[in-house]
Amino acid sequence: MRTATKVLLPIGAVAGAVAVRETYQRRLRKPVLTWGATDEEAARRLPGDEFLEDADIVTTRAITIEAPPSAVWPWLVQMGSGRAGAYTYDWIENLFGLGMHSSDRIHPEWQHLEVGDMIPGKASLPGLRVELLEPERALVTRSEDGTWVWAFVLDEQDSRTRFLSRNRIAMRNPSLGDRLGMAVMEPGSLVMERKMLLGIKQRAEALAAS
Asked: What is the pTM assigned to this prediction?
């Protein structure tokens, strides 16, 4: 009996995990990957796509900000560990040693970002290099190992801004465990990125109002 239990429990656990993943893929994955974005925005080509064409995971999340791009841009260029943070849940970021402290003000000393600059992160993780920078239009970064491209795009609509955040991720020879882990990682990334988008919206609208 014990032998059968030792054999069947792992099999049942794997089968259960696969079932959860399949349910997630069919019913939940699209809204998780495209929170706030229209179908057109999720499908359209954005600046930075060219840096990782064959991505295994693509997320496009978006929000409307009641402020022009000029009020959004300063918050983007000062992001990073040891800088203005990521405007999300700092306590969660710092569980992973990222040293994030989200700022509620514009820091002039962090406003001069250029192509080739590295955005600080955790020392043990690949840094993010600025690959494309079009002021008040697009900011694209890529990890040093080339497996992650993160693009911020600002579309001006009258006096408002449509703010899009796109992640493109390549998985090198992913195992079954890696793929099952996506059912956890992708919703987790939505929790953090949604908070970031809302945090930038709040800050930009306050800046425009002042």
From this structure: 0.82
